[in-house]
Amino acid sequence: MTTSQRVWMSPQAHDRLQQELATLRELIATEAATDSDENSVAIQRARQARIQHIHDLLLNCVVGEDPPDDGVAEPGMVLTVRYDDGDTEEFLLGVRGAEYGDLEVYSVQSPLGTAILGARPGERRSYSVPSGDQIPVTLVSAVPYGLHQPVTSYRGVTALRRRG
User: Fold this and answer.
1) Is the pLDDT confidence value at 155 over 50?
2) pTM score, two decimals?
3) Which GO terms describe its molecular function (predicted)?
């Protein structure tokens, strides 16, 4: 992340990223790579890249401030969308790389995130998948993450993963 775009993050995700950052920094300090061990050098580079990514996320995040409960699709909202075949999907519009339990996360930079950002319930949008097809999607609801009640099951996840 090279921009200073503010990103929404739950307090739990923020804490997990801080813990991961501390662990990675400790590993870097205690497991110095030798120039002769290519695998060790590659691991250290990957750790450094992850440290930078986490640092950028933490530097630019808004922690736990739920967006207004106005039904508009924006970061920090749990969205329910319906596809033309009737399948629905529920996901958090948030930050990839920070875990939110069993809730799927789409960033605002993802094709679906970009398409649905700013939508209101009942509004229909579409996004492109790698095959070039346009997938129409309708926003059913947008609820702040802190007010969200988890759904125990829904049938749309399998269908969406087949589309992807």
Assistant:
1) no
2) 0.63
3) DNA binding; translation elongation factor activity
DSSP codes, 134-146:
EEEEEEEEEEEGG
pLDDT for the residue 67: 77
Q: CA 19 from chain center: how many Å?
A: 18
Contact 121, 139 (CB under 8 A): yes
Distances (CA, A) of 106 to 37, 41, 110: 37, 32, 6
- Facing residues of 144 across strands? 77
CB-based contacts of 15: which residues, under 8 Å, 6+ apart? Answer: none
The pair of structure tokens assigned to 15 is 């804490």
Structure tokens at 39: 């695998």
Bridge partners for 93 per DSSP = 77, 106
Instruction: Name residue 42's amino acid.
Output: A
Model confidence pLDDT, tens digit, residues 1-13: 444 566 777 777 7
**Angle between helix 38-59 and 11-30 (nearest 10):** 150
Place of tokens 């629905």: 88
